[in-house]
Amino acid sequence: MKNGIRILLFLLFLSVKSFSQESAFCAVAGYKYQGLSFGEIGVNYSIFTGGLMFSFPLYNFGIGSEISYLDGEVLLGPKFVVEGNYVFIAGRLNSTYYINSRKEEFILTPEVGLTFFNIVNLYYGYNFRFKEKVFDRISSHRFTFSINIPFHNFY
User: Domains in the chain: how many in total?
Assistant: First the structure.
């Protein structure tokens, strides 16, 4: 019994201490609510770190777009994302440029939340505007649910 516990502790030590880094691209799909419902699609470049027994994403850089329908028109939000996470806690910064045929607005959104190894994410964020509110129906508060699907399996 003692030898079994020692072996398990040794394997846990190896998985924590022998970190290596690898990278992969991830597809992103999500839903967000901020006064309007938005769908999100994109791609992340993820840096994974891990040991012999497990790997988890450490940080991501991504591009994508948010898509909604407002006042009879499609509202697009091309975006750049920087994301950092550690197993169950995550933070991210979105820079989104919302545009339709008549208006445009840039919004910066820091978000914090929960993640499950950056596969499934649930965030709360606050929208910072740099001029007057152009799209009135986009609120200051954002709730995001997203799923990241690696093109290469590290899990």
Answer: 1
Other C-beta atoms within 10 Å of 122: how many? 14
Which residue type sits at 93? L
Collapsed DSSP state (helix, strand, coil) of residue 54? coil
Q: How far is CA 95 from CA 18, 90, 129, in A?
A: 35, 17, 11
- Give the chain's residues under pLDDT 50: 14-18, 52-53, 154-155
The CATH number given to whatever domain includes residue 50 is: 2.40.160
d(CA 95, CA 77): 9
CA distance 126 to 44: 22
pTM, two decimal places: 0.77
CB atoms within 10 A of CB 6: 10
Beta carbons of 91 and 66 less than 8 angstroms apart = no
- For residues 107 and 127, the answer to whether their CB atoms sit within 8 Å is yes
